[in-house]
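Q: Please design a sequence for this.
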């Protein structure tokens, strides 16, 4: 795998391809964004503040409500209707304080984006800000989180531990969802995959080994170092890195950092990109922290996969999403 930076990325090529390659070259576009942070603090009860939510509430009132906007998510929705991706992946933090009203509002927004067949969601730490009742919170999005093999058992699932990791296959794209969401102490936003989930994840990766699929890992916390400080880190990132070194994947997408982030992870076929998106509702003037989403056009090739990335960035002046940077990279067929 080549570097994700534009100066080292290997340009996609359609020359010298066989007729069989051309027949098998239908592209698939995945849109990725993260951290919408849908808030309903107007619905908060004083009793809800007798927990870590108090700190989050104060942070929202004093800072975040000036930096994030639900209206921006409506504009994002309209832009997605124009770009028409084949699938949408959202890597967590749909809510702000894990309030039941926030989960309901996020559910309605998800339904406006598409069906569970078209949209994949994983949770973030703000979606488990404190311990909550499953039926009042995360169950509202269950259809958007379920793996393909779990649909028939949906009624028996009552926790993230039972649900994750998940596997969804769309066309020749394998979307592997990981949960790092867990309640943490005040002033901490750490995440963990956990031993049980890692064991199940290894089984999924082993199962996919040898199949001609483009494997995308969806995770909230950055699985690469240097993106966030220890207070916001993924505490068992090294175990995920070990699994990827052993079994491989083609792309890792994450959020949490509220800024753009690019890195590489080792696999048997070489380095693959790990790419993080900022908050989808962010109005920050800083380019790296302002709302954006990515369109990954994935195309099979004789050697593996070619990927073209289009960045859609919110323009504060035009009040709409506009074209940002583009890049191309190639990934060897490590899973074939």
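A: Design:
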């Amino acid at each position: 795998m080549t570097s994700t930076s534009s100066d080292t990325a290997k340009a996609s090529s359609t020359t010298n391809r066989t007729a069989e390659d051309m027949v098998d070259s239908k592209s698939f576009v995945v849109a990725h964004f993260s951290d919408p942070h849908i808030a309903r603090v107007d619905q908060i009860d004083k009793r809800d503040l007798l927990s870590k939510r108090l700190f989050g509430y104060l942070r929202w009132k004093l800072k975040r409500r000036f930096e994030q906007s639900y209206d921006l998510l409506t504009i994002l929705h309209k832009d997605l209707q124009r770009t028409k991706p084949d699938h949408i992946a959202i890597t967590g933090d749909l809510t702000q304080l894990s309030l039941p009203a926030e989960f309901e509002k996020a559910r309605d927004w998800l339904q406006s984006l598409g069906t569970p067949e078209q949209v994949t969601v994983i949770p973030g730490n703000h979606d488990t800000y404190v311990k909550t009742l499953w039926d009042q919170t995360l169950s509202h999005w269950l259809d958007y989180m379920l793996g393909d093999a779990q649909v028939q058992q949906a009624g028996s699932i009552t926790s993230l531990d039972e649900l994750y990791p998940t596997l969804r296959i769309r066309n020749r794209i394998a979307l592997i969802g990981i949960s790092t969401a867990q309640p943490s102490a005040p002033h901490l936003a750490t995440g963990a995959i956990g031993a049980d989930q890692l064991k199940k994840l290894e089984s999924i990766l082993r199962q996919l080994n040898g199949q001609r699929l483009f494997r995308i890992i969806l995770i909230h916390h950055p699985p690469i170092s240097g993106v966030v400080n220890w207070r916001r880190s993924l505490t068992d990132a090294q175990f995920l890195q070990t699994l990827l070194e052993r079994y491989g994947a083609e792309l890792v997408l994450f959020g949490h950092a509220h800024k753009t982030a690019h890195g590489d992870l080792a696999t048997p076929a070489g380095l693959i990109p790990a790419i993080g998106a900022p908050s989808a509702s962010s109005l920050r003037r800083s380019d790296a922290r302002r709302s954006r989403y990515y369109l990954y056009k994935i195309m099979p090739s004789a050697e593996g996969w070619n990927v073209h990335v289009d960045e859609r960035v919110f323009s504060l002046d035009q009040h709409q999403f506009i074209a940002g940077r583009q890049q191309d990279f190639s990934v060897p067929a490590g899973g074939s």
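Q: Thanks. Anything notable?
A: DSSP finds eight helices and twelve strands in the chain. Confidence is low (pLDDT under 50) at residues 1-24.
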